[in-house]
Description:
Organism: Anopheles minimus
Number of domains: 2
Strand content: 5-15%
Number of strands: 7
Domain CRAL-TRIO: 98-261
GO molecular function: phosphatidylinositol bisphosphate binding
GO cellular component, one term: membrane
Shape: globular
Distance between the termini: 44 Å
Number of helices: 15
Largest sheet: 5 strands, mixed
Protein name: CRAL-TRIO domain-containing protein
Radius of gyration: 19 Å
Amino acid sequence: MSLKPFDIEVDPPSEDLMEIARRELRETPEVRISAVEELRALLKEAKDMHFSEEEEFLLIFLRPCHFYADSALKMMRRIAEFKKSNHPLLHALKPEEEKLAFIEHNVVNVLTNRDQKGRRVLLVNCGAAWDPKAVSSEQLFRVFFLIHLVAQLEPATQINGIVVVLDFDGLSLKQVKALSPSFSRRLITFIQDAMPLRLKEVHILKQPYIFNMVWALFKPFIREKLKSRIFFHGMDMRKLHKHIDPCDLPANYGGDRPPINYGGKEWYPCVYNYIDHINQWNTFGFVPNVL
């Protein structure tokens, strides 16, 4: 099926993709059937939580947990805890509430192509391109959260994972002030404990000296596993190219593709197209009357 540039891939995984899943995630038809049945049984026992028991939904958690059902259940519980702890920020979250942040401010973007390893590449403009007065740090987080809800529906992304590129070009004190300790803790907690996606790499680019103030806020919350996947490149795009092939990068980052001429405005309809999944996700987590 032919995809539009600003759409996601929800078709069943190809044979090549399933071979990667077998090699990296232990996924075989037999393991998948067994893990889905086990996770369903565990969810039935977890009377304080509510999540869908449909197989396609359970795969969102089983794949990043290498098909260990008990690990998937623990992830679901951490997600429930995160939603509870951030209830005012995430309760009944809807794309239309963040539409202006999407379409008028190019803070969060996604490359239309995958990289050489089949990974989705998320771009976050954390420097001069981000005006915290127009898009608060809370809005920035909600936009990021909505994008991750849509990305988790792609089998190819579930299997291959994602890469995040943080562009700090033109970073100044107004952005540093917006990246508060509470925001830093929330974002890192989400990434490490409550995001059911395989985060393979984080690349920090074009960071000025003032970035050290930002890093000092984030560093205390970062565990070794994530720390080992964070790479600092400054203005040297050749260092980035050791991880992402220039053939898959735009000219903005020394790549062979044309400069980026799209952003959240183009991606917003795709996010809104999956409103049913977003609405359903809003109902998942702890059961209110047994909290």
